[in-house]
Please model this.
Amino acid sequence: MADLNAADIIQEREEFICVNAKDKDESLKCDKDSIAGTVSQRACVYCGARVVLNPVTDAFHIVHGPIGCASYTWDIRGSLSSGPEIYRNSFSTDIREHEVIFGGEKKLSAAIDEIVRQYSANPPKVIFVYATCIIGVIGDDIDAVCKAAERQYDIRVIPVKSPGFAGNKSVGYKAACHALLRLMGENKRGKKIRGINFLGDFNLAGEMWILTDYLRQIGVNVVSKFTGDARCEELMQAPQATLNIVQCAGSMTYLAKQMEQKYGIPYIKISFFGMEDIKLSLKRIAEAMGDQSVMEKAEQLTVEREKEVGPQLAYYRERLRGKKVAIYVGGGFKAISLIKQFNDLGMKTVMVGTQTGKAEDYEIIRSISDEGTVILDDSNPYELEKFMLEKGADILVGGVKERPLAYKLGIAFCDHNHERKHPLAGFEGAVHFAQEIHLTVNSPVWKFVRGEGAG
Amino acid sequence: MLDLTPKKITSRKGLRINPAKTCQPIGAMYAALGIYKCLPHSHGSQGCCSYHRMQLTRHFKDPVMASTSSFTEGASVFGGGANLKTAIKNVFTIYNPDIMAVHTTCLSETIGDDLGTIIAQADVPEGKRVIHASTPSYVGSHITGFSNMVKGMVQYLAENSGLANGKINVIPGFVSPAEMREIKRILTLMGIEYIMFPDTSGVVDAPMTGEHDMYPEGGTRVEDIIDTGNSDLTVALGSFASEDGAVELEKKCKVPFKTLEIPIGIEATDRLISALAKAVHREVPGVLEEERGQLVDIMLDSHSYFYGKKVAISGDPDMVTGLTEFVMSLGMIPQYVLTGTPGKAFEKRINRMLEGAGMEGCVVKSSGDLFELHQWIKNEPVDLLLGNSHAKYIARAEDIPLVRVGFPILDRYVHHYLPTAGYRGAMRLIEMMTNALLERQDRDCADEDLELVM
Model:
């Protein structure tokens, strides 16, 4: 750890923090378990699995475990649906002491039976069963329960192995990917459908709709969406697509690799956050489709939309230039897009951190951020506060737990997580994003916080 | 969207749909936040801690600090003792609280970690304290967790030194800082010296100062919790969230206790104030009599809008009990009364209240869920819903006005700054309920029926 006042950083944490210095080849430690006793901002395996699968709108999601895991994840994802709303209900087995002693398999089977019975008017096609922390510990064989239910009802009942303690959120992403692979099964017989699967957009505030609309406009057929506004049937069709595009790399690269191996679908990484990445992504998708007319339409769309949003972005750029930004988000891909987006707005990123970024993400972050930028992995409020104050950040971009921390420090905030209220992806998203940054950074409330309003 | 809820009610044994409760640890974490300079600690996977902090943050819109043992695969096989010992060391080194309040989770309970022993063996710096409560997520609810942590405070901290302090202990229950502030205001008006514990006012409703204080000014001082053992009386508000702590204090320090309801509504507030007046042999001060008079005045002004209206009430048992009594004082019918927290005592208490008021045909349930409440409403509708934010799905599906009370409220602001307790809280409840009913009337009526004076 270079040039930091290390006195009050917990010793075991030092290797997880660095100050960007281009001349030094210093690698950041990441992708490790959190240290016991820190106020970690991280979540667990179950959380990772749940956020990836939850947007599947017509699946029944049964949380097998005590009630908390179901309660805290009841309709908090912010993923919108164009049709079914089953996923917005909370189903669980609400495990009690009796099951902890005698096992929870019976209760789980009963829960599955009751879903089938209760919703006979709207029969389930797919049920995901999430195994939480204690399910393995008490010895429930959820594979067997799920298999038996599949046979009995002729539906898909898919176990999601997500005990919280088995790692951090990214292990949960993998568990979700396994469940999705299981859902797609060995589907090799279907004829290829010329078109793409969109991996890693969760339709927060309707972002998937904006992006699939672009794709439609440039003549690219979308076979399935993982998992924003997804339906089970389209997911099962995914093996027939000809290309995978991966946005949220942290959660979906694994799935893309598996699909490449299993179904022979190549993949490319893209991101629709910020003008630079949007343009590049459209171009790359068009090139990967290998169709001249698609390439032309992509070019045309880019030119048109850029012209449209240009003046709007310029308006905000003028009001934001020179402001300093701190970023603390879930995964690396988002952090990278954000740094570029802030550069475009003339803002300076002074701190970047992620909960689950990988070594290669941090390499890119180092290469695109300025010297002196603090980079940290799996941080805690104490460090966030310290570095934001030291670096004089004007705004923090983060999730729900970071918001009040920023406010208390008199720092503006933008939610780039589940609680975003406006779509932040695509051309219009880039404008919304600039607008959100503007309305928090330049709000009149700050003058009362800083005492300028007195008298 | 919740039109997905079928009208036909079928019995369920395995399936919980749309819960009206959550798990113990979050209650324990909230209680621990009510101690000054305390860092709550979650002994389990890091997701638990993250979820609880997130949910409390969404409700209070304030930073919620808590640390975690960050269980790994190894800890879940070999026990979490080493994690907790490391955590204790790290917490005091880096976050330097005066006290650390550890609660367990379903995982650490199931693998059988013995926290008492682990803590006794841990390296706790001189002058610092570690307390704990056992809070298995598969027993009770968040209310049970709150109760268990309060009990833990007594077990670890309260002492009877033999010197009476002449104070009254008040355990406020799982309520927001607004309620705690209002109850303290009443105690102060009555000239009563008290120790309220836990007390989250000044912690989760801390003012904006431009600085982030990991340990804001609020919270019960540890010395005061120790001193609860020397008080004359403990008033436990709410049998579910507060009574166990009071019982423990009587057992440990011989402090007698009285269990009352959370003072929601005119009658429960009357009972609290007269019990306090009796305990300290004092007259009720004029200010409180004036407030009560104002409340009765408001009840009279608005009573015609309430009489005979049907209400569905859902939430935490102690809170729901107060609300049920109050809506009956206003002439409403508590058609459905539901808590997610298990406990037949709840049903007994509510049914006794209903009988006392001559109410018939009302449905009361503990250990229920909002899906079932929705089904009842589909079969026989109500005019008003009282509940937390999750009730908004029912409100929308059935087009019924909702007044948000209880926990969690994730979609509105200011709620935890303004009380629902005491006479003033009752006034606020009337304001919220009349606003809801009258706005609905304004929205629904024909042009010619739109009234200026209501």
Observations:
- Chain A touches chain B through 84 residues (CB under 8 Å).
- The radius of gyration of chain A is 23 Å.
- Residues 45-184 of chain A form a domain with the Rossmann fold fold (CATH 3.40.50.1980).
- DSSP finds 18 helices and 14 strands in chain A.
